[in-house]
Write a structure and sequence with these properties.
Two copies of one chain form a homodimer. By secondary structure, the first copy, chain A, is mostly helical. Chain A is built from ten helices and three strands. Chain A is globular. The structure holds a DNA duplex (30 and 30 nucleotides). Chains A, B: InterPro entries: GntR_C, TF_FadR/GntR_C, Tscrpt_reg_HTH_GntR, WH-like_DNA-bd_sf, WH_DNA-bd_sf. Chains A, B: This is GntR family transcriptional regulator.
Chain lengths: 232, 232
DNA sequence: CGATGCAATGTTGTATACAAGCAGCGCATG
DNA sequence: CATGCGCTGCTTGTATACAACATTGCATCG
């Protein structure tokens, strides 16, 4: 965020910086960047840039065409829908396990955090809902003692975070998110796996449908904006 | 496979070589290796070794402790069981989609490959069952036009390949594998998602239970062997 | 005029040199 | 004898130089 000119940046920082540039649409899908460019930009050598790009490639943010350049990967709607489907399958699994083994204490703790009554207060405090939302979904898997499942959810989130950010920040959805999360947690507390699975499915499906249209418009906007603005 | 001493190896090859050493128990969990060692061993510089290790780290084969060394990661039974559970969820999803959209032609093609009548012939020909098996499971997702799902299954397979290899090569299971795969395909051809999902679930569950005991004994054997053999 | 070869340029791939940091050990000192 | 401090060796982290290769534009030839 803040630029410290003197400090030499580490690979992990470069990774974050590039990812931010992508997820904030500063670098647009299809753009081609070279390792040298990025190295100059961040004032480091190509080595850490390369490592960061390698990781970003594994995670699907960019694709490196050998000897040619590095391209920001496009995300198409079909791909996103697929990820949402996968999320449903995995999170239903997480919820099922949570019903079996997530301690009451943790569930109640989460319920406090997602009590719809808290919504306005949180908003007033300027809580970053996208972060809180991610913590909820990952937290179910972690609460159920399924670290690998949590890992997979994290990696999926990496891919769709761009969209979820747009999604979750839409005002008209934020209260609904509280309600839906709260409902899921209630069912978990009651150890009713069937209802909990259904609730989480509905919740994700709603997100998906919303995200779909939202993405289209957001991308279109950005595209227009880019086209109008610069010729870098 | 065959060693060409003159040819300089590329990063991808180094990656494969190291992974093979791990999955074939040539490098044992807990072992510490240094980049320099590997570079010397493969007669390349540290750079490609580093890149290969980075990738292996992402995929969970090794863990690099900064400034200290690179350790072959242990796989514990609990973790493996979790992966099998995840596979059930994901492959049920794949099968469901396959019932909807996998073309008859592809299904029939797969059924030919997995016709139990072919089993003895395949064995005689020395077919690598672990490869064929992986192609089946991935193939369902691909046939259903779900490339991202296929990707995720691939990455899970990377993690449990060691075990699956032991599993699938056990003679007494190979014919059963043909039968179970064939059954799943039959249900898909009939577009009976319910039965297909149940069949794939049973199939993976059986694998899991078998793998569990198998891994324990295999690991124990190797451990004993190592303990007896060397003190490197 | 068009196609083809060829060289120049730019990009990633690899090797090597140097920096930084941590662990373990030995030494000195209380 | 115990303990704290610093030093050395080893390992990863980063910078840079060089190699290989793909693309592209131009020139030359049919």
């Amino acid at each position: 965020m803040t630029k410290l000119p003197g400090k030499r940046k580490t690979t992990a920082e470069i990774y974050q910086l590039i990812r931010n540039k992508i997820t904030s649409f500063e670098m647009f899908p299809g753009d081609r960047v070279t390792e040298h460019e990025l190295a100059d930009l961040f004032e480091v050598s190509r080595t850490p840039v390369r490592e960061a790009l390698k990781r970003l490639e594994v995670e699907g943010f960019v694709s490196v065409r050998p000897k040619h350049g590095c391209f920001i990967r496009d995300f198409d709607i079909v791909e996103l829908a697929e990820y949402y489907d996968i999320r449903i399958a995995l999170e239903q699994l997480a919820v099922e396990h949570a019903c079996e083994s997530m301690p009451d204490k943790l569930v109640k703790q989460a319920m406090e955090a997602w009590d719809p009554a808290r919504h306005d207060d949180d908003m007033a405090r300027g809580i970053d809902l996208s972060v809180k939302d991610e913590a909820f979904h990952i937290g179910l898997a972690e609460g159920a003692q399924k670290p690998m499942l949590a890992d997979m959810l994290r990696s999926i989130n990496n891919r769709i975070r761009i969209i979820r950010r747009l999604d979750i920040n839409a005002d008209n959805r934020s209260l609904r998110t509280y309600r839906e999360h709260f409902e899921v947690l209630q069912h978990i507390l009651n150890r009713d796996a069937g209802k909990a699975k259904l609730a989480i499915k509905r919740h994700i499906l709603r997100s998906r449908d919303f995200a779909k249209t939202l993405t289209l418009t957001a991308l279109a906007q950005k595209k227009a904006q880019i086209r109008a603005g610069n010729t870098r």
